[in-house]
Specification:
Helix content is about 25%, strand content about 40%. Among the domains are: about 100 residues, Beta Barrel (Lipocalin), CATH 2.40.128; about 80 residues, no CATH class. It is built from two helices and 23 strands.
Length: about 300
């Protein structure tokens, strides 16, 4: 009997303990649920703000890293310099120290040519244009002067001075443009306002004309065509209407002739055929087609007219 009574008491105590544990577990679960709900609500509510803060920190870190890199690139041969420049895939850059320019290796950061020039351009075909006392000359990669200081830099016209296929556009002391070779000799005399080197040839501009030159400066064409317009004329065609009656119908017909304008003769025009053959000189103010073979030419006053058949 005593044993049975003791066992019953132990069962009751165990049930009470289990009940207390369940209550404690329920309370803890409820509290944990509240904390999680609060955390999620706070996360959602503050997401934008934290995202902005994180981005701000991230951008600041990136900017700091960029600044560190730029500062490192502005050190040449262990010394702090004012600025550095590089161009494309070139391994030679330009640096500025105390207002003077020089050249350094982008691979080793070692000085190749000391900073002694007022201005310097990137190397092309083994030569680089440098300026001293207002004159331009050319040095090699060792810094030796190959072409003496004798040219002028017209910055507004040509910001870069480079050689291409052994030729370079330069200006003389009077500011007139021409073309030099790698020896500094004029292959196109400096007598033009502007010179352009293109795959099609050398184009030179004067005050009243635009010329196409050969590689040795000979004039190939002195009045370049700048605009071509097709000629049209109104003709009457005989057609049947819906009732079967013949009627004359005005039709605009495009012809095999063109009006061309040249650079040399500004605002003047001439007549050419479909094959590009010039049938007249560009001396007229206007040309109109009357039919397939008859044309009306207006002189420079815009009023005087004569008709010619071709």
């Amino acid at each position: 009997m005593i044993m049975e009574k003791k066992e019953k008491e132990e069962k009751v105590d165990a049930q009470k303990s289990t009940g207390k544990n369940m209550k404690l577990y329920t309370v803890c679960s409820f509290v944990a649920g509240l904390c999680m709900a609060f955390f999620i609500a706070n996360l959602i509510g503050g997401c934008d703000e934290r995202h902005e803060v994180n981005n701000t920190v991230r951008y600041a870190n990136v900017e700091r890293a960029i600044n560190d890199v730029m500062q490192e690139k502005e050190k040449v041969d262990g010394m702090k310099v004012d600025e550095t420049w590089k161009h494309g895939m070139d391994s030679i850059g330009i640096f500025k120290k105390d207002g003077k320019r020089g050249f350094y290796s982008l691979n080793t950061d070692k000085v190749l040519v000391p900073a002694t020039y007022t201005h310097a351009c990137f190397f092309s075909e083994g030569l680089a244009a440098v300026e001293k006392d207002g004159k331009i000359g050319f040095i090699n990669m060792k810094g030796a002067l190959v072409i003496p200081y004798q040219f002028v830099h017209r910055t507004n016209d040509r910001p870069d001075i480079v050689f291409k296929d052994g030729r370079c556009v330069m200006a003389n002391g009077n500011g007139q443009m021409g073309v030099i070779n790698r020896k500094g000799e004029w292959v196109v005399k400096p007598q033009y306002e502007k010179v352009d080197l293109t795959e099609s040839g050398i184009f030179a501009t004067t005050s009243n004309s635009k010329l196409l030159l050969s590689n040795n400066g000979e004039i190939i064409q002195d009045d370049l065509i700048v605009k071509v317009e097709p000629l049209k004329c109104n003709v009457q065609l005989k057609e049947k209407d819906a009732e079967g009656r013949w009627r004359l119908q005005d039709v605009e017909m495009r012809m095999d002739y063109y009006v061309y304008y040249t650079f040399a003769y500004n605002n003047r025009c001439g007549l050419m055929d479909k094959d590009g053959n010039r049938l007249t000189e560009p001396v007229y103010s206007k040309i109109e087609a009357l039919n397939e073979h008859l044309f009306s030419f207006y002189l420079l006053d815009g009023e005087t007219q004569f008709v010619k058949s071709l």
